Write the structure tokens for this entry.
Amino acid sequence: MGAGLLGSMALASGGKAIAASIGQPVLRPEVRARALAAMSRHVDRVKVRDVIGIADFDAASNAPRFHLLDVASGRVNSLLVAHGRGSDPSHTGWLQRFSNDMGSAASCSGAFVTAEEYVGNHGRSRRIDGLDPTNSNARGRAVVIHGAWYVSPEMVRDHGKLGRSEGCFAFSEQDLVQVMARMGAGRLIYSDKIDRT
């Protein structure tokens, strides 16, 4: 693992403690400000404004880069999240580009509103609707929130990065429980990469 990574973090899995090197979770002020601005722009569609999910794709996939922001208290809980394989064709662990194109298998940027829960190919999942021109095809592309085997501290420990989704916000099965509980219908997800170089 490279510079900027913290040491070991004890985690429980299957009754055994494991160590996983993961990046330090940080919600950068500029990303937070952009997410809050997106909430203001879409106040007519974002009906529940207690928690915002913020994906900061400037961070590598081995870092907890999906931030659950409690708007009232400012408290942040940061989780691992995968990006789409079309956003990282060489599987470097870094998102290279966004796309809203059908069939791109890429992550898309901008503001989303969470919608209905359902059980699908990945088990318990939640649909999301894109609110910006950069993600207007999210529902048609089946970009959703779901759990995935390729998202876990063990994956980071063993491979230095997460696997990739088809453009969905994919979480570990353990973290999915929290995401589904806190990001019910009508809440904002904001996805961005400020450093586009």
